[in-house]
Design goal:
Blueprint (H helix, E strand, L loop, with lengths): L5 H18 L4 H7 L4 H8 L7 H11 L3 H14 L9 H16 L3 E6 L10 H9 L9 H11 L10 E7 L10 H17 L3 E6 L13 E6 L8 E5 L4 E4 L2 H17 L3 H13 L1
Parallel strand pairs: 1-2, 2-3
Antiparallel strand pairs: 1-4, 4-5, 5-6
Helix pairs in contact: 1-5, 2-3, 7-8, 9-11
GO molecular function: DNA binding
Organism: Nocardia aurantia
InterPro entries: Cro/C1-type_HTH, DUF5753, Lambda_DNA-bd_dom_sf
Length: 283
């Protein structure tokens, strides 16, 4: 089971409250006035931009007429959501969107990722991550080591008793691109070899150059997170050269899921992917 994440707890709380409101037949503006909020403030609550308190949630639960059992569940989510995760230490370093993603990642049960040009962050060595971060002209030199540390901290989700399952699909170009130079790349590939032997919950699949439709996703990078709680949908995150953010539209998340399935179908098997990684590491 995934560890408790305040970010995930807050998300589940607002999703369940919105579902209950709609089930009771209230529109957002009417409901807001009935529970002592302005429509704008209640909209912020349902979008996760404003955090409820024990006092402000009481009239909400009363109007929704929730059972004693569900009330206890929602109050537990409220309390959990008010905790601080490790990713909230520096707003200036990460920014609110990245903090949200890392919080979601921390509480995910399964992580599916696609990267066409670089090894995904959860599988990077320190040297490989440092080379990538240093190359970003938007990042100040003083921030490099802090961001490397954050990336390594994220990787703890792959180990321990509550480890996440990771299925990462990458293009073969990631095995050849000289990020940090030949020594750094070789160290990265050798690390992937070791990781495959150590963790059966991590699966790396490679789309080979010979795949005729392997470049269908171009230079994109995206991640799909799934959770234990049945109330939570898949959380999508997409990145490009100048953008990285949550995919809020459910239809777009569905499209990303379809794209991921297509990428997985075009990839080599787990064993053949490992053999290709080993070949490049020895080359």
């Amino acid at each position: 089971m995934a560890p408790l994440s305040p970010t995930v707890a807050r998300w589940e709380l607002v999703l369940r409250l919105r579902e209950l409101r709609e089930h009771r037949g209230y529109d957002s503006a009417t409901f807001a006035r009935r529970v002592g909020f302005t429509p704008a403030n209640w909209s912020h609550v349902e979008k996760g931009r404003r955090v409820l308190t024990a006092n402000s949630i009481a009239p909400v639960l009363d109007l929704l007429e929730v059972t004693a059992e569900e009330r206890a569940e929602l109050l537990t989510l409220l309390a959990a959501g008010r905790e601080r995760g490790w990713w909230t230490g520096s707003t200036t370093l990460l920014g609110p969107e990245l903090q949200r993603y890392y919080g979601m990642e921390h509480g995910a049960e399964t992580i599916r990722s696609y990267d066409s040009l670089v090894i995904p962050g959860l599988l990077q060595t320190e040297d490989y991550a440092r080379a990538l971060i240093r190359a970003d002209v938007m990042i100040r030199p003083v921030q490099v080591e802090q961001l490397v540390e954050v990336r390594m901290r994220r990787q703890r989700r792959l180990r321990g008793t509550d480890r996440a399952e990771l299925i990462a699909v990458v293009g073969e170009a990631t095995l050849r691109q000289q990020i940090g130079g030949p020594k750094v790349l070789r160290g990265q590939l050798e690390y992937l070899e070791r990781l495959a032997g150590e963790l059966d919950t991590v699966e790396l699949r490679v789309i080979p150059f010979r795949a005729t439709t392997g470049a269908i996703l171009g230079g994109s990078s995206f991640h799909l997170l799934d959770f234990t709680a049945p109330a939570l949908p898949t959380f999508g995150w997409a990145e490009s050269a100048v953008f990285g953010g949550a995919v809020e539209n459910s239809d777009q998340v569905r499209d990303l899921s379809f794209a991921y399935v297509r990428a997985l179908e075009r990839s080599l098997s787990r064993a053949d992917s490992l053999a290709l990684i080993r070949e490049y590491a020895r080359g």
